[in-house]
Amino acid sequence: DNRRTHVGLIRREAGLVAGSLFDRSQLDAAQARLLRTDLFDGVSLQPAQGEGRVRDVELRVRERDRFSFVLGTGVTWPDDGPRINGEALARNIDGRGLSLFARGRASLDWRYFTLGVPPQPEWRAALGLDLPWIAGVPLQLGVTGVLNEEIDEATWRVARSSVVLALRTRGLGPFSMSLRAQAQLRSPLRV
Predict the structure, then answer these.
(1) pTM for the predicted model, two decimal places
(2) Which end of the chain is more exposed for a tag (fewer CB within 10 A), N or C?
(3) Which residues are CB-contacts of 175 (< 8 A; sequence separation ≥ 6)?
């Protein structure tokens, strides 16, 4: 059920070579590579013929929903107190794996409730972009911008904005790795 993802991306990520000898382990590895792109909910690779050393392979993918929204709440004791967070994601916008996201969080510190002081909310908003996986290399670049996040502690309060660059690799099997570089701009606020 491929409606948005470019066929070239699917073929490249599957990594199967036309005319090669049939090897079930290659089909399993291709399925794992396609699932690790995070673009598909399901991937099926089956030989079209029942026997023979050279067979056609039928490849079926079920794409993940293009848009997803998550909303959550929680409580942390004794630190942050009640909080609400959310994420909106637009996945595979261009058919090549480009995704955009927005994340937010707001919380109230418990200490304000016990001191009889009006609570000041802490909040964080981030916008980000995940670029497609680099062709032929198991690497992906992501960029996230944090917008004027406010952090409140007992003796200080600070607002900060930042840009985060992340380089992710898919690795072998269940392992992956991520490198991050972050630049921050901070400004103290009155306590």
Answers:
(1) 0.71
(2) N
(3) none
3-state SS assignment for residue 140: strand
**What tokens were used for 191?**
């306590």
86 contacts 62 by C-beta, under 8 angstroms: no
pLDDT for 128 beyond 80? yes
Strand partners of residue 127: 102, 145
CA distance readout (Å), 16 to 12, 22, 23, 31, 131? 8, 10, 10, 10, 24
The tens digit of pLDDT for each residue in 75-118 reads: 877 666 888 999 999 999 888 888 999 999 888 877 666 667 77
Residue 175 — pLDDT band, cuts 50, 70, 90? low
Q: What is the per-residue burial (b if ≥16 Cβ within 10 Å, else e) of 110-139?
A: beeeeeeeebeebbbebebebebbeeeebe
Sheet holding 139-152, edge to edge: 67-76, 81-90, 99-107, 122-130, 139-152, 157-169, 177-189
Q: Confirm if 152 and 122 have CB atoms less than 8 A apart.
A: yes
Write phi, then psi, for 18 (nearest 5 degrees): -60, 135
Residues in contact with 141: Cβ distance below 8 Å, sequence separation at least 6, in sequence order: 130, 131, 134, 165, 166, 167, 168
